């Protein structure tokens, strides 16, 4: 019995760590949804694109090499240099900001005052475009991402738990780093949104467009800002997931994990995204641990959705979402 | 530009300066509807300028033209002796033109204090990166603005609700917070769209007093929309009367009151 409990604790802890990753992706969704009412279907692909760009820059890959070679008949591939991780990350942030500006200028600007469903469909288009664009720019092969984050079993946790429970927990260093980074990111975003001029402007835009305009806020600037931040969050998520399981198309599917997190936490709440991610991460590991064996396992694929659906019935606005009251 | 140098002193001793804004031959159409039809008038520094008229006369549309929310189909807006180019509402706000809305537009999720603080966004200097780099300086700036906002809060007697989320306030107080937010911008022109609509008598009296005090204390140029003639007569220095998108009267209240067209419009010859 005690042994059971020890294993369960380990599963729960690992679940929490995985949950942090889910939160990270959900956070990107919340930021954009809150400030512009757009459900950004492309958030997952943005994470993939960010990771691809980071790897490409790090390895000195020539962008669009395949295309250039096809046209010129050359054999370009690499500049032959390696870019240090920190510099590559900074450059990638620059690319994500550039992308935010392009999205605003080419897409959002032309869809002002359109219904949310139109904007949603525009982001579906954006997702497919970005996926293809990423392929053309950096190639479709699976890449490994290494920015020097520690990986493998954390020995301190193992020996400590070993001493306490007589069984050493397996916690991946990368998961611990992801958790720390996520907490820092959320703290930074909170400080930014609560205490800075732009943060206040951002909350204002999220609340009422007319009023925001009347106090001199440029909606277009705010949208570029929000998409840049979402791009940055996508990069962070891309780095964590990419370091864990390589950079390939499936990385964009992490977005699917964020959906139940959002249903649980509410689409408009940053704390909701965090808590939702943790509940789902831990819930699915524990469910797999206790119930999984009874029903043949592989519950992790669907558990999150079932949990979210149950939530949806009882609290449609999510745990922290604002109450939905129809204006009459 | 005409009248630039002039000015006069009102009977109650307030100084009215030269023309600050001039609207020239403004026409505004929505498809077939003509909301404003070839209207010209000016606004002098320090005065309370009322726009009155029956419902649907085009008053709000005029305010929206001034604040950049509507782009006039024809006509020019002159501000401080210069013709204003095509501008977006946020750019107009940055010129120092603050407004309230007929249907209240506040940030419901934010506290009263935060709402009023947004009014000062146009006056805040430091940009995104300088804020991140020199956190201390940004914090000092924030404190400075906070102080100014507290003064406005005291002035409008809303100290006890400063931390309340605006969405929870009753209608009358919301109107007051909206006024506070507009004042926080230290506007060159303050535009108020029916600030007294939907209020009870006591709230109306308070609002009247605030508008007068603000004008008196800070010399704020105020453009005020009302459809109730009585209130306006006591408040304003000069009145523009609109009806069906046309200007049917313009002048001091007592003069406008005796204008036959105005009397007809208000007796509701053709209005419901
Ligand atoms: N955004 C708009 N689109 C179409 N018609 C409008 C719009 N705004 C105002 N109008 C029309 O312009 C006319 C004047 O409206 P408004 O300026 O709101 O009058 P008032 O404020 O004097 O009651 C009305 O016929 C109204 O329907
Ligand atoms: Mg109106």
UniProtKB/TrEMBL annotation, chain A:
One CC-aspect GO term: plasma membrane
Keywords per UniProt: Amino-acid transport, Cell membrane, Membrane, Transmembrane, Transmembrane helix, Transport
Entry's Gene Ontology BP terms: amino acid transport
Bilayer topology term: Multi-pass membrane protein
InterPro entries assigned to the protein according to its UniProt record, in alphabetical order: ABC_transp_permease, BCAA_transport_permease
Subcellular location: Cell membrane
Keyword Membrane: yes
First-listed, main subcellular location of the protein, grouped into a coarse class: membrane
Residues passing through the membrane, by range: none
Entry's family note: Belongs to the binding-protein-dependent transport system permease family. LivHM subfamily.
Protein name, entry field: Branched-chain amino acid transport system permease protein
């Amino acid at each position: 019995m005690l042994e059971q409990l020890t294993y369960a604790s380990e599963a729960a802890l690992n679940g929490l760590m995985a949950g942090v990753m889910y939160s990270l992706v959900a956070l990107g969704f919340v930021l954009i949804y809150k400030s512009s009412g757009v459900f950004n279907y492309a958030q997952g692909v943005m994470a993939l694109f960010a990771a691809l760009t980071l790897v490409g820059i790090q390895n000195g890959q020539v962008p669009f090499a395949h295309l250039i070679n096809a046209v010129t008949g050359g054999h370009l591939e690499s500049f032959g240099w390696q870019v240090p991780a920190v510099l590559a990350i900074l450059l990638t942030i620059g690319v994500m900001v550039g992308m935010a500006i392009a999205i605003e200028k080419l897409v959002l600007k032309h869809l002002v005052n359109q219904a949310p469903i139109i904007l949603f469909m525009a982001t579906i288009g954006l997702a497919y475009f970005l996926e293809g664009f990423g392929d053309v720019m950096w190639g479709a092969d699976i890449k490994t991402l290494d920015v020097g984050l520690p990986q493998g079993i954390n020995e301190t946790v193992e020996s400590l738990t070993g001493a306490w429970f007589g069984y050493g927990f397996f916690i991946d260093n990368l998961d611990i780093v992801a958790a720390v980074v996520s907490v820092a990111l959320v703290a930074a975003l909170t400080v930014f949104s609560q205490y800075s001029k732009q943060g206040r402007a951002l909350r204002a835009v999220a609340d009422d467009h007319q009023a925001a305009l009347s106090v001199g806020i440029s909606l277009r600037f705010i949208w570029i800002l929000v998409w840049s931040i979402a791009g940055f969050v996508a990069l962070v998520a891309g780095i964590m997931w990419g370091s864990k399981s390589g950079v390939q198309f499936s990385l964009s599917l992490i977005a699917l994990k964020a959906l139940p997190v959002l249903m649980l936490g509410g689409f408009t709440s940053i704390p909701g995204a965090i808590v939702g991610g943790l509940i789902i991460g831990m819930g699915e590991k524990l469910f797999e641990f206790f119930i999984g064996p009874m029903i043949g396992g592989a519950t992790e694929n669907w558990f999150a959705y079932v949990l979210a659906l149950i939530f949806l019935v009882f609290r449609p606005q999510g745990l922290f979402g604002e109450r939905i009251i129809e204006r009459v | 530009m005409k009248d630039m140098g002039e000015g006069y002193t009102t009977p109650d001793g307030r100084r009215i300066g030269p023309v600050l804004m001039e609207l020239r031959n403004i026409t505004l159409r929505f498809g077939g509807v003509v909301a404003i039809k070839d209207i010209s008038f000016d606004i002098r520094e320090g005065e309370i300028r009322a726009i009155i008229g029956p419902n649907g006369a085009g008053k709000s549309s005029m305010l929206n033209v001034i604040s950049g929310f509507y782009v006039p189909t024809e006509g020019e807006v002159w501000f401080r002796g210069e013709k204003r180019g095509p501008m977006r509402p946020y750019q107009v706000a940055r010129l120092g033109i603050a407004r309230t809305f007929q249907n209240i537009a506040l940030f419901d999720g934010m506290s009263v204090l935060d709402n009023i603080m947004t009014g000062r966004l146009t006056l805040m200097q430091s940009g995104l990166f300088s804020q991140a780099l020199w956190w201390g300086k940004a914090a000092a700036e924030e404190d400075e603005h906070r102080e100014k906002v507290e003064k406005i809060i005291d002035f409008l007697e809303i100290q006890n609700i400063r931390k309340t989320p605006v969405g929870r306030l009753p209608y009358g107080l919301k109107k007051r917070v909206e006024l506070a937010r507009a004042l926080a911008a230290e506007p060159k022109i303050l535009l108020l769209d029916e600030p007294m609509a939907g209020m009870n008598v006591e709230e109306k009296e308070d609002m009247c007093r605030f508008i007068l005090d603000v004008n008196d204390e800070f010399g704020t140029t105020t453009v005020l929309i009302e459809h109730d003639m009585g209130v306006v007569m006591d408040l304003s220095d000069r009145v523009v009367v609109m009806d069906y998108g046309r200007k049917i009267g313009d002048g001091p209240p007592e003069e406008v009151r005796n204008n036959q067209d105005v009397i007809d419009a208000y007796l509701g010859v053709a209005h419901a």
